[in-house]
Amino acid sequence: MASHTPGAPVFAPPADLPEWALRSVDLANPRLGARALAASDDFFAEVGRMLNPEPAQFVPGKFDTNGKWMDGWESRRKRVAGHDWALVKLGARGQIRGFDIDTSHFTGNYPPAVSIEACVSDTDDVGALLAASWTEILPATPMGPNSHHLVTCASTNAWTHLRVNMFPDGGIARLRVYGRPVGNAATRSSTDQLIDLIAMENGGRAVSWNDASFGSSVSALLLPGRGMNMGDGWETRRRREPGNDWCVIELGVPGTVEKIEVDTAYFKGNFPDRCSVQAAFVNGGTDRSITTESMFWQTLLPEQNLQMDAIHTFTDQLAQLGPITHVRFNIFPDGGVSRLRLWGKARA
Fold first, then answer.
1. Which CATH number applies to 17-181: 3.30.70.260, 1.10.940.10, 2.60.40.420, 2.60.120.260?
2. 346 forms bridges with which residues in the sheet?
3. Which one of 112, 259, 284, 335 counts the least CB within 10 Å of its CB?
4. Which helix (H) or strand (E) holds 58?
5. Exposed/middle/buried for 311, CB within 10 Å: 0-12, 13-18, 19+?
6. Which of 236, 238, 243 is nearest to 332 (CA)?
7. pTM for this structure?
8. What is the DSSP string of 283-299?
9. Cβ neighbours of residue 157 closer than 8 Å, sequence gap 6 or more
10. If you ran DSSP here, which 8-state letter would residue 129 be given?
11. Contacts of 184 (CB under 8 A, 6+ apart)
12. Do domains 17-181 and 185-346 have the same CATH topology?
């Protein structure tokens, strides 16, 4: 019998994210260290697929030994009382603003409802987590087929682990957990060790930017490791008018900067010609007011020439400004940068 060749994959459209999600990072991104730890059942589709940062896809005609291959987490049809669940470790301890529970491509097999619980744990041991004290941060919420479900979270606590409950069974293509890492207490109190003060895992976040037409969001600048390709970074459109592009970033913890790294990995014909960094210690204000003030901050790093596909390290060029809380990263006139690192010492 001739084998059937699967058709071309169909990718799910992106979610129309509200402002609270756009100003957040996905705490369930494996690039940040998130991972699925266990599930009550993932017979049809392995639970780890639910955290894939890529859009969910449907491949016509693709089957595995258990049935139709699905891109997400899918349990078998439950024939007993109860519901299915999955344990997820967040990439960083963080405050959660909301979720995108994505059922793309799940039509007759989506869960009728989903709830999410959270806890704080210093272990990933499944037995210990199942015995832990859990707090419901999203009550049972109706789901629909083939849709992004953007729901807010009222909790203001910081969490490390989630338990995702499907009532009673079914499939979730993707889970995005939008929030802000709060950093590590030991990191915050450190005074001797050099740390990346704006790293996402240390609580750094993108506050504002003038453009992000290509590639990932500005938050990609703060991810661990080097960029994987030209889409893994901050890239602006081609500037056709005077001026330059910029973004404002809040440090995870106030600190003094001793070294700056600007990585243009994979950006070759579109890297910025130059860059500079301004900085300030900010007390109070909103993201909008801080953005306005940033135009007048002191210069931490004067304009420096950049090269394609390279890590640029600056130490002697840095001004001694003392502790800072925010930076404005300027690129001239436009282009793409993969990662930005501010190595320094945390200061209260």
1. 2.60.120.260
2. 255
3. 284
4. strand 57-58
5. middle
6. 243
7. 0.85
8. -S--HHHHHHHGGGPEE
9. 95, 118, 120, 135
10. H
11. 93, 201, 202
12. yes
Q: How far is CA 169 from CA 52, 145, 299, in A?
A: 20, 14, 56
Q: DSSP letter string over 203-268?
A: T-EEEEES---EES-GGGGGSSSS-SSTTSSEEPPPP-SSS-EEEEEEEEEEEEEEEEEEE-TT-S
Long-range contacts of 34-37 (CB under 8 A, 24+ apart): 34/88, 34/89, 34/90, 34/91, 34/177, 35/88, 35/89, 36/73, 36/86, 36/87, 36/88, 36/89, 37/87, 37/88, 37/89, 37/124, 37/126, 37/129, 37/161
Per-residue pLDDT of the chain in tens (348 residues, 90 and over written 9):
445 688 899 999 999 999 899 888 899 999 999 999 999 999 999 999 999 999 999 999 999 999 999 999 999 999 999 999 999 999 999 999 999 999 999 999 999 999 999 999 999 999 999 999 999 999 999 999 999 999 999 999 999 999 999 999 999 999 999 999 987 644 555 557 899 999 998 989 899 999 988 766 799 999 999 999 998 999 999 999 999 999 999 999 899 999 999 999 999 999 999 999 999 999 999 999 999 999 999 999 999 999 999 999 999 999 999 999 999 999 999 999 999 999 999 986
Domain boundaries, the chain: 17-181, 185-346
Q: In what order do the strands lie in the sheet with 214-215?
A: 214-215, 234-235, 336-337
**Tokens representing 128?**
């210990």
Q: What share of the chain is helix, strand, coil (3-state, %, to 5)?
A: 10, 40, 45
- Both tokens assigned to 321: 């400004």
Structure tokens at 292: 């306005």
With contact defined as beta carbons under 8 Å apart, do 96 and 179 qualify? yes
Q: Yes or no: say if 129 and 119 are a contact pair by the CB < 8 Å rule.
A: yes
Answer CATH for 185-346 from 2.40.280.10, 2.60.120.260, 2.60.40.150, 3.20.10.10: 2.60.120.260
Tokens standing for residue 326: 């925010």
End-to-end CA distance of the chain: 71
